[in-house]
Each structure stands twice: as structure tokens, then as C-alpha cells.
Amino acid sequence: MLQAVRCGWLQRAGVELALLRLERIDPLISGNKWYKLAPHLAEARRLAAPGVISLGGAHSNHLHALAAAGTRFGVATVGLLRGHELDTPTVRDLRAFGMQLHWLGYAGYRARHQADFWTPWLARYPGYLPVAEGGMSLPAARSCANLVGMIEEGLAALGWPDYQQLWVAAGSGTTLAGLVMGEGGRHPVVGTLAVPADHGVAATVERLLAEAGASPGSGYQLRDASRGGFARLDATLARFILDFERETGVPLEPLYTGKLLLALQEALQGGEIARGSRIVAVHSGGLQGRRALDARLRELAGLF
Ligand SMILES: Cc1ncc(COP(=O)(O)O)c(C=O)c1O
């Protein structure tokens, strides 16, 4: 699962990189999604809930994994979607997986943080387990903490005695908080923000760490990797992704993993990481979301 990757910019910086290739754990329930969903699915089973209800956008990796898990494990799923009805590859899959969809508009979706948001939905779907956007919860973060053990197990096969930093993309901050818990201060965790810095990731990470009884504000740092906004693409990012894929054979998507590794490249070029360092980065999946962006990536990279 932990794999060393080689490419020109890493070599020039004298830094080694290993990817925790979570995108390969399952063709559908892949990346960090499995780790975040597993405790929710276990809770639904414990409560004998008739289904699970959650939220996301028209390209949501979280809803995609939840819908796939629903079909696989025989759990009914409901997806509340941001905005107005769109036909995307993700939405087509959600329907094919049997997820019941409701489009909330933009204002309706913004209401998701209000205390009574779930009341009408739970009246409509009695007994369903509500799961926050991105699967965010303390049990989800704790589940992601186990990834650190997976990294440790993979080090020997690489011949690495240790690593100096752990990098991961952050959307809600759940996975990052889990890794900080799992590391317990042994290695600094760098969270590259896929969303602008004012989107509350720092507050979520701090809240989850406090709930877990971990020391707040320590063991991690956040870097804005959003490049102007969530899902904002540009030519530099597009060329970086396509070059990285060609050189390493590892597929990326532009919202999380592409921006994560581009932020790492920028840190190396800025001399922020010492030569001889060994870095682990989490490949958190999300490749299903790339389908709708493939043509745009090629166009931005000047390939047609
Ligand atoms: C592919 C991918 N990577 C990383 C993340 C970020 O995870 P988290 O929300 O736990 O910060 C997400 C979505 O949430 C994602 O879909």
C-alpha cells in the first residue's frame, strides 16, 4: 500500500516520497472514504437503521462511496445534493447504485449547519442515520488514525527507517485530524487545504482533536493549496498532474491529490524541506470525480 515514487522534481530536491495508495483498496469505496464511512455503516447496523442519509455536491466522492457501500452491504441510501439538478458521471452512478436523490438548491444546502436541518428529512426517512458532509465525525477521524499503523507497516518494505513528514489533502479536515491523532506527535502532519482557508477546516480539526482529548494546535500545520477556490483549476495544476501521471504511473485527480502534490512540489522548490528528507503522502482516492474534469485538464494543459 505504501509505494515509493520517483520523478524529476523529487530527485532535484534530493527528497524521497512514498504514497499511501488508498485509491487502490477498492474500485468503488476507495481512498479515505472507506475509513471515514466504516464507523457510520457499523453504527447504522448497530441501530438497525433502515438507511443512511448524507450530503454532498454533484461530483461528491463521499456520496459516491456511500451509495456504492449501500448497494454492496444492502443499506438504503439517501443523498441531499447541493444546487440544482445536474447530470454528471457521479450523479448517474448515484442513481445506478440506487441512492435516492434530493436537490436542495444553494440556500437549502447552506442550511445544513442549522440545528433543525435534519428534522424534516428524518420525518421523511424515519430511523435513517444522518451523516454529516464528507462523513465528518470523531469516529470517522479515529478510523483514519489507523492509517498511521498502515504506514508504519509499509516502511520496512521500502527500506525506510523513518519519515520526516506526513502530507494529506484536507476538505473537511476529518482525515487530517485522524492522522494527527494516530501520529501522536511522532511526525508532523501537513494538511493541504482543498478549500480556501476561511472554510472552517482549522476549526473542525481543533474540535475533533479536543473531542478526542488530543492536545490542540499541535502536531500539524495547514497550507492553502486551493489555488483560488475549491475545484478551481489552472494550467500549472493541469500540466503538473499530467506530467506526474506520465512519470510515475500514479493517477491523480485535480481537487485533492493533484493540489496536494503540487503544494509539496512548491514547498520543495521553496527550500522548505531539507535534502535527504523522506515524506509520506496519502493518496486519498477521488478518481471517480476526475471523469467530469478530464477534458478540461487536457485543454488547460494545452493538449487540445
Ligand atoms: C479524494 C479526497 N481526498 C481528500 C478529501 C478530504 O478528506 P477530509 O474531508 O477528511 O478532509 C476528500 C473529501 O472529503 C476527498 O474526496
From TrEMBL:
Alphabetical list of InterPro entries matching this protein: ACCD_DCysDesulf, TrpB-like_PALP, TrpB-like_PALP_sf
The keyword Iron is assigned to this record: no
Pfam families: PALP
Modified sites of kind N6-(pyridoxal phosphate)lysine: K33
Domain Tryptophan synthase beta chain-like PALP: 11-285
GO molecular function annotation: D-cysteine desulfhydrase activity
Active site: S60 (nucleophile)
Top-level taxon: Bacteria
Family: Belongs to the ACC deaminase/D-cysteine desulfhydrase family.
Protein name as it appears in the record: 1-aminocyclopropane-1-carboxylate deaminase
